[in-house]
Amino acid sequence: MQQLNCCVLVPTYNNAGTLKRVLDGILERTDAVIVINDGATDGTSDILKNYPAIEQIHLPENKGKGNALQVGFKAAISQGYDYAITIDSDGQHFPEDLSVFLDELQKEETPNVLYIGSRNMQQEDVPGKSSFGNKFSNFWFWFETGTKLQDTQCGYRLYPLHALKDLKFYTPKFEFEIEVIVRLAWDGTLVKNVPVRILYDETERVSHFRTVPDFARISVLNTWLVIVTIFYIKPRNFIRKIKKKGFKKFLLEDLLRSDDSPKIKALSIALGVFLGIAPFWGFQTILVFALATVFRLNKAITFAFSNISLPPLIPFIVYFSIKIGVWITGEEVSFSMEHMTENFGMLQNLKTYLIGSFALAILSALFFGIIGYLTILFFGKKKIIVDNG
Q1: Which of 57, 59, 68, 258 has its C-alpha lying 20 to 30 A from 274's C-alpha?
Q2: Taking the CA atoms of the chain, what radius of gyration do you get in angstroms?
Q3: Residue 347 pLDDT > 70
């Protein structure tokens, strides 16, 4: 603990029945402990009087686990700690597993890492609602960050404090533990699971998770995180990737040399072109990442080719959409290219445009998909020949 400059944070609220056992177990291993009494109304304060050597923060009223953790983080940062391990005071975690986090941290290549305890959710004493809630949370974390974890809800964690100090958080209760790992992952912190043991003793364990209101708060948070992911984080990461590599290198590595098969790449190109041309105004980005995820296509390629509808090309796309629509429907529309560029918003026949737009999107998707497939096959074979001398 001293070598890694790490402390232990114990947020507690009305867990007088297990708090002493938890603290005694921690103190056998370290005295770098900060307890945050989140306005407990049971015997918590009396128990803590027996531990004068432990730093204690007593909040006047209960404001939620998220708020208590943030108070603890600020205290740890002010004392110069680099890491903080959080452990719940309800007795479900084993203080002996502190070494699991420390051992992993010593082996880790980057200091910017957040470890989350991975519990065995299949053991008999784990409540069914806990297992379901964990799977639910795991899915949304993967969607929001691209990182797959086995457990995203365990409160037994190791946090890199340097990555937390400049972030502002908005959730004060249980949902904070979701917000913090997503926000850190967005900022480049590596988030990983480490195996920990779990004890669910219903005779002594007190849980303050309120199924309906807390699950509702978590659902609202995930909705907001998904929106931010689709409209900001995914495009931001994509643009950063291109800037970091350069457009030519990006095309070579991510388009031609990724592990995806030529078929997957070609279908990704086709989907991107289709969504870029089809009249899904305002929803193209969300559809790109949603459909690419559903069909297990390459999101980077799909997003890249969805930008076919760049502003300079929009008049031409609209022009050819109406031309094709006129040919399909037989309905004449009086317009010229000059009229389209000078008075873009005035379409005399919306139905004709929509039909033509979808037709153009399908034809363009087929064309670019086939050309992309043949190009990828050609360069792929060429690369194999080069690699084999």
Answers
A1: 258
A2: 27
A3: no
SS3 80: coil
- Coil, strand or helix: which one is 343? coil
pTM: 0.70
Give the closest residue to 40 by CA, choosing from 17, 54, 59.
Answer: 59
* Phi, psi dihedrals of residue 308, rounded to the nearest 5°: -65, -25
Secondary element (H or E) of residue 386? helix 350-387
Strand 157-160 relative to strand 55-59, pairing? unpaired
Using alpha carbons, select from 114, 133, 141, 111 the residue that is nearest to residue 225. 141
Packing angle between helix 299-306 and helix 284-294, nearest 10 degrees? 150
Residue 77 in tokens = 């940062």
- b/e string for 123-143 if b means 16 or more Cβ within 10 A? eeeeeeebeebbebbbebbeb
β-sheet with 190-195: strand ranges across = 55-59, 33-38, 6-12, 83-86, 157-160, 113-118, 190-195
Q: What is the pLDDT of residues 268-292, one digit of tens each?
A: 999 999 998 888 876 777 888 888 8
Owner of token pair 């391990």: 85
Q: What is the pLDDT of residues 178-234, one digit of tens each?
A: 999 999 999 999 999 999 998 876 665 566 666 677 778 888 999 999 889 888 898
Nearest Cα residue to 312 out of 270, 340, 289, 274: 340
Res 338 pLDDT > 60: no
Residue 345, pLDDT > 50, answer no
Q: Which residues lie closer than 8 Å to 22 by C-beta, 6 or more apart?
A: 10, 15, 87, 88, 89, 91, 93, 95
Q: What are phi and psi of 6, to 5 degrees?
A: -120, 145
Q: Which of 33-47, 147-161, 188-202, 335-349 has the lowest mean pLDDT?
A: 335-349
Alpha helices in 79-167, H assignment, sequence order: 98-107, 128-145, 161-164
